Structures are given as C-alpha cells and as structure tokens.
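CORE FACILITY INTAKE
Project code: CF-77B
Contact: R.S. (postdoc)
Sample description: multi-component assembly, two entities in total
Requested service: structural model of the whole complex
Turnaround: standard
Below are the sequence entries exactly as provided by the requester. Do not edit them.
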Amino acid sequence: MGRKLLMRGNEAIAEAAIRAGCLYYFGYPITPQTEIAHYMARKLPKAGGVFLQAESEVAAINMVYGAGSTGARVMTSSSSPGISLKQEGLSYLAGAQVPAVVVNIMRAGPGLGGIQPSQSDYFQACKGGGHGDYRQIVLAPSSVQELYELTVEAFNLADKYRIVVMILGDGILGQMMEVVEFRDEEPVEHYEKPWAVTGHGNNRKQNIITSIHLDPAVLEKMNRELQKKYELIKQKECRYELYRHEEAELFIVAYGTVARIAKSVIEIARREGIKVGLIRPITLWPFPAEAFDKVMDMAKAFLTVEMSSGQMIEDVLLAVNGRRRVYFHGRMGGMVPVRDDILEIIRRMYDEHVRKG
Amino acid sequence: MAVIFQRPNALKDVSMHYCPGCTHGIAHRLVAEVLDELGIEGKTVGISSVGCSYNSYDYFSCDMIQAPHGRAPAVATGVKRCKPDCVVFTYQGDGDLAAIGTAEIVHAAARGENITVIFINNTIYGMTSGQMAPTTLLNQFTTTTPYGRIAELHGFPINVCEMLATLQGPTYIERASLHDVKHIKKAKEAIKKAFKVQLAKLGFSLVELLSTCPTNWGLSPVESMTRIEKEMIPQYPIGVFKGENLEV
C-alpha cells in the first residue's frame, strides 16, 4: 500500500476517479457533495482532463452521455434532488449502453427536503428512477477508504458491462474525514470500446449510439439483451460483508453509515451475551440475497435499519422469503438511527426469538 | 461519361422517411455536401435529436449519437470536450431547440462551445402531429392552437438567432431559407461557413434553416415554399446575426 492521507469522503471519491483514469467530470453544485466538483475543478485541468460546470443536472448527465459515447471514462455527482433531474439521462444511458459513473451523496427528501444525510433514494437507485426496464449497478460504501476503493471499482464495472454504476453514499460519508490508504497502483481494467463514436476515419463502419427502436420486436430484443446482461451481473457481481456472523442468532441488515452504527450495537449486545451479526450489502443492486441463505440456518430473526421509511427492507423480505421474521427500524428527514434505540430493539428480539424460543 | 451530380458520400444510399415537400431532405443533403467538400466525414460526430429527424443517423454516414429531447447541445459538449479534434454538429428542430432544449442551446452558445448547430425551423411540431412550437407564428393554426396562436394566450414566437446573438459566446449565427434554389445555395454557404468556423476552432456556430411542414401546415409542397417566403421571412428575417465579417 502507498501513502496515507486524511481525507473527506467526497474528496476521496474525486481522487479515486482520477486515479481510475476518469479525466472528464460534468456536474452541478448541490450540498452535501459539492466538494467532489471543487476537487475535480482543481485537479482535472492539471491532469489534462476537463471539468465543466453544467447549467443544470439535466445538461450535466447529457454531457456525460456524450463523453461516455466517445469511450472516455466520465463521472458526474449530485445529491438526491439533483439525481432526480438526472433520471432522464440515466434511462438513456441504460438504453444506449453507455458506461458512466454517477455519485449520489443522499440527503433527505422528498422535494427539496434538507441537507442532512439520508438513505431514502434506495428505490430510485435500485429500482429504476427513470423510465423503462433498466438496472444500474449500485455500490454502497461505508467508510472513506471504501469510497476510494469502490470508486475505482465502479469505473471497471461500468466499462466491463457498458452500464451506469452508481456510488450511493449519504451526507455523513461525503462529509466525514478519515484516513485513506492509497494503493501504489490502481487495479484499472482496460476494455476495448469498438462501439464508441470517435469519427470513423473512413476505415470502419459508422457507429451509432441510440436508445430508440420504433419496431416493437426490435425493442423487445434489445430489452431481452439488457436483461441477459443484468442476469449475468446478478450472478457475478454481488458483494456483501458478513460481520460477527459466527454463531449469530440475530442479524442486523444495514448499509453505508448505518452499518457502522450497527457494528457498535453488535459489540455491546455481544458483551450482554446476545449473539448478533451483521449483513452489510455492498452492492445494493444486485442485492446480495445469497448472504441471507448463508446465515439462514443460524438466524432466528432479522432487523433492517435504514435512514428511510423502509426501502431496502423490501429486498430483505424477498431474500428472507418468509423463512424468518424481519423487523424494521428507520429514521427520516436527516435524523440518524441511534445506537441505544437499535440496541433496545435487539434486546426485545432476543427475548422473543432466543430466550423464549 | 463524366459524373456531374451524385449523392454525397456523407449521405447513405437509402430512402428517407420524410413527407413529400418536407425540406429535411434538402437540409440533410446540404450538410452532407459540406462534409464531403471539407473532407471531414471521417472525423465528424453528428447528434440527432427528437422530432422528425430523430433517425438522421440512418441517413448521414458519419458516427452519430441520438440525444434526448432538447439535450443535443449538452451531448455535443460532452463529445467535443473529450474529442476536440472531432467535428461535432447537432441537428435539431424548433420544438427540440427552442422549447424543451432552450437552456441547453443558450448555455452551449454562451460557453462558445466549439460545435455547429443546424437548426430546422418550420414553426410547428412535425413528428407529434402539428402542435404549437415556440416558433409558431401569431395567428397560425396548429392542433394545440385551433383558433390560431394568440399572443395573450400563447405568448410570442421566439427568434432564436436574434436571441442568441445577444450573447458574447457565439462566433457565427446565420438564418437562411430553403424555399428556392437561390436561397438553398446561400443556405449551403452558411452551413459550410459554420463548419469552417468550428474547424478553425473559433467557437460556437449556428445556422437556422427556414423549413416546411406541408403535412401539418395542410398545404401543398409548392404552397409551403410560398408560405416561407410570404409569412415566415417577415417574422424570421434571413441574414447574418453574428460573425458577418468573419473570414474562414
């Protein structure tokens, strides 16, 4: 490993992107992720790249569409209301199979909401906020170190599958400062892009980037190909962390910042003799259902904790598929779940499912 | 036997889907001739938009991207910033450029983005069956102004060239017309100049082409050409709005 630096989460994302070979950034300011733009504005011109502040999020994502179409590694970032505006572009990128990395450092909504952290864009990120049958890979880091590593990974995955990869963080992760240990060399994967529009130089066939197919049979075929790709990603790219799962009888399911809170809950509960483990999805789409199968024999119940009214829990319920009881605790509006509240629920679950059981 | 007239290389050998009397075919041909004459087809990326010309990638033979409604200038910006040596043009209608895409065109122009915009103005939404466009003339009948466009209800037409010419960013802006041979020749000169401005890296260029929509106007092709001359040119005067003395 290389140099260690104390960095803000947003800056770690930006630095990682440049190290991953992203020389193009198009964005529009919105709290709490604007440091990404600040960092790119400072660094990209020096790296021979381009930082451009667009006139809107809509323009920014379409600049990404153009840049990605040329085969360049390109990124944009925003926060919840801004990501809503980018949904049109995300649907087109999916339809035209143009790779790009999009960062959403979530704040609380709906509407203009507030600038405090939230996880209430889970549906939008994982279920398709734009129109049409499409998916995007959604990565959920839970530390600044992971923001750095997963951002590099995001560019590789985007190019590998010609897909949008979203880094889904929250305002705490974006703003917090932690030590990042940088690698001497990034695992940058290089993919041929014979589909890119770069001018055909009169020596190859015309390339066309498009998402329109007015013939329904052709459009259905295109959709089937997309679904095949998504199936492949489901099989190959599920990522998760199992924490203290040895002999665990109860499991907390949480991602991002909330997973960190869950870990401190688990330490206290374990000291009280309550055997709790954590399932932390790292890919939110594809959702790592296999993690649940792995622990199902020992798990007596699950508790999903989110900074939302309960969005990921729908995927948890599908993964558990009626085999165990699933509880929920969520905070909204920028409020963060607190350790003692979660602990209290765990104690009650223990009484109900383990002590009595 | 010497060939004195043929299909430009930059135009594919396919039939176009446009209605009889529609001037998209002429506009396509002029752009293709210019790409041929400047020898730039191999390094050009065209951006088609939403509207009747959405699939102009089936007609032009250069690399093409199909952009979302109104966003072509932003897509073109992304391409040009990554590939500054590519020639990048957008091909947009009035609904695309002057309504949903107003922000994108204004800001691409204000940035002086080194791209060329071909703007087709036929005062109506063609593809979606004849609704009012921002360019629809006062008193013009459309499916959404069945009693005519009334300023008090629907606002006034937008003169895109005049509006954009107030900005510092653009280098060359001209309005031309496709209603007769003389004007078509002038339109081609304008298009050629617009591409040459880009090749010389001088910045943003836009050519507005006064065009027809016989189907939605409910006029014959010949009457449509006359309408451009008699009704459109008074509202949309032809001429150079920026870069008149520019030598390229």
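Facility notes:
- The domain at 241-354 of chain A is CATH 3.40.50.920 (Rossmann fold).
- The first helix of chain A runs from residue 9 to 19.
Invoice: internal transfer
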